[in-house]
What we know:
Layout lengths: L6 H27 L6 H25 L3 H24 L4 H15 L2 H12 L3 H26 L6 H17 L10
Helix pairs in contact: 1-5, 1-6, 1-7, 2-3, 2-4, 3-4, 3-5, 3-7
Amino acid sequence: MKRIPNADLMLLFFFQAMAGATWVVPLGAVLKAHGYPDVWPYAFGCTAFAAMLSPLIFGALADRYVAPVVVLRWLAAVSGVLVICNWIAIREHCSSLLLLALMQLLALSVAPLNSLVPSIVFLRLKDESRQFGPLRSLGTLGWIAGCWLISLSIPDASIDSLLFCAATYLALIPVSFLVPAIPPLN
């Protein structure tokens, strides 16, 4: 059987984008359907704050001390667990403040993935300008697949969509083992 070049990197893009779609797309409907209509605008605000802060912390960690793919594994694991914590908080009708705190923690663990995955890919490519675009397109397909899987298998406002999201983040862990770890540059 012929090996597909860079299949590991394609899967990395695919699952990272799929996980994002399975969180972002149903989130507003889930929050509104489960008694948190005032929370959902702030939930998306968590992402903006995390986008500024989190890559600085985890990007520096991946650049100097730990192989980027190892940081990716830990962030995927933490993200999956935090999605489950959000699912429990919504299911148990916890306070809006606790739910927002959990969403902020999740956003802090997810935000660096958006720069970490491309960094891992760039480290492996020989001709970035030619190879990156086709590989990155698998992220778009992952986003589409995540949207379709949620919409076709689970009602959009169902809290169970969050469990699918958690499973997708956790699926990044075995996928990351397909990618050889490149040590940090120091």
